[in-house]
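Our platform keeps sequence and structure together, in a single record for each protein. Such a record has a labelled line for the sequence and another for the backbone structure tokens. This encoding replaces a full spatial description with a residue-level series of whole-number codes. Below, we set out a record of this kind in full and without editing:
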Amino acid sequence: MTGPGKSMRQRMLDGELYIVTEEIERDSLHAQDLTRRINALPASAGEIKRKLLTELLGALGEGTEIRAPMQFDYGCQTFFGARCFVNFGFVCLDVARVTIGDDVLIATNVQLLTAWHPIDPQARRDKWEAGSPITIGDNVWLGGGAIVCPGVTIGANTVVGAGSVVVKDLPANVIAVGNPARIVREI
């Protein structure tokens, strides 16, 4: 599963178990510093905010707006499509890649959580961790307080109800609600 001589950072990026090193910690601190700078800006500082977001994120599509406060683990692992809107209180633990399509609406206090820890107690004690990517399709709406767990893909046009916890993939064109989120109807 892992190649010889592979760095912990590369293991993290490849979705394999890794232990946080100084290099990984520096990347996280850089993202936290950028995020704090963005969150401290006045609402009228649009151009400066967009420049800092472009530095932080893997991609920021044309016309995408992310309202402060927000928090990213690394930022560089998160890719936004065009014309997305992200409301206040967004949390993105992006130890693995997060891909967000075009025209996605993300309500207040939504969490995208790619990080996970081993079930084995000794591995957790030894500080091993990993991440699994999250993919959000075009024109998805994530309701307030929704949580999307590691490894989940949400298909295009799907609506996730407020407070839902998405632990499994959701197909396109459905409405899903609850904890765990379940499909209640097709669109």
About this structure: The two ends are 40 Å apart (CA to CA). Residues 8-186 form a domain with the UDP N-Acetylglucosamine Acyltransferase; domain 1 fold (CATH 2.160.10.10).
